[in-house]
Amino acid sequence: MTERLYYRDPALLEFEATIISSEKADGRYQTVLDRSAFYPTSGGQLFDTGVLGGVEVLDVIDADDSVLHITGQSVGEPGRRVAGSVNAARRKMHRQQHTAQHILSQIAVRQYQFETVSVHLGDDYGAIELNTPSIDQSQLDQLETAANEILFANWPVSILFVSGQELDKLPLRKIPSREGELRVIKVGEFDYSACGGTHCNSTAEVGVIKLIGWEKLRGHALVKFVAGSQAIEDYRLRFAVTDSLTKSLTCHLKDLNDKVDKLTGENRDQRKQLGALFKELLPIRADELAATAVTIGALKFVYKAVDGMDATTAGQLGSTVAERINGVALLVADGRLLISVGTGSKLHAGELSKQLSASIGLKGGGSNKAAQLGGADPAKLEEYKAALLSLIGHA
After folding, report:
1. What is the distance between the alpha carbons of residues 233 and 33, in angstroms, rounded to a whole number?
2. Which of 26, 238, 269, 349 is deepest in the core (most CB within 10 A)?
3. In sequence order, what are the residues at sequence separation of 6 or more whose Cβ sits closer than 8 angstroms to the Cβ of residue 162?
4. pTM of the full predicted structure?
């Protein structure tokens, strides 16, 4: 049995303990200590990392009454006294994120009667799954504002160990199914929740909470957020991206969306115009390619890497060429390998693409007259040609 030091002191990062057991499984070592400050993955919160006995801790697993410390090397034999050091930055991020989750879940219940169904606390963001099919932007804004007001109020976050009649007197957000003594996280007088995770000592320590959107999950609204140091990293990235874009597009941040929408529209119009021009020139280009056809056995064959043409237009070009030479056209365009066969060739483009896919490692498919494979490299055109001719029987 492992005494979980983080239960009473989530700020504890350095400790000493005695090894109870050490076993090797799947190439990694599993060490159980008599006491540990390392938090194992549970309750939606990820595990701590750090160093144990001079060895890097790769994972921490909750195993009933024990905590398994996973390492790539042996920490030591049973009975050895070892020192442990928890990664401070990761623990801080987890404490801020988990405290933020409790605050958001309580506000969602109080303001909208949205209960939290599940929790995800990850390296990139946290999320609460709410028992509502959707949530609108005004509700998200109100939720975010209310959460940060609680941070500014600097309410204390306490750990309570309660059972029996004491537990019945607490306004728990969710009634736990587990009996006996429970660990309860108390946020001011605002939220009481049974929880085994690590939390801040006050709401101010969370720093900031930023909602970053929502998506549908199992028919519920999954609201994503970042908090504390995680929010700072997120803002740093978003600022770098938007700052670079505003400088490149010579516009103010407030005008960035309109500027991008305008450029996207112009690009779409230009692509349409370019596509129309390609279609007009298609017969001429088809004649040029048909003139380069080589005869291999009884088959006429054209192969070419086509620059500056999208896959759709290139496919039309390939089909036109294949009919004109009554053979096979193999083109590479826009990262795709396009196979077109003429009516009189008695070949099936889709079947050829399946066989070619197996031999050159590209994936795709098609119909009897035309097929395409994704991930094609123009520099490998000769390799594609040789593989296709081998399949047809003209290697």
Report:
1. 34
2. 349
3. 170, 181, 182, 184
4. 0.74
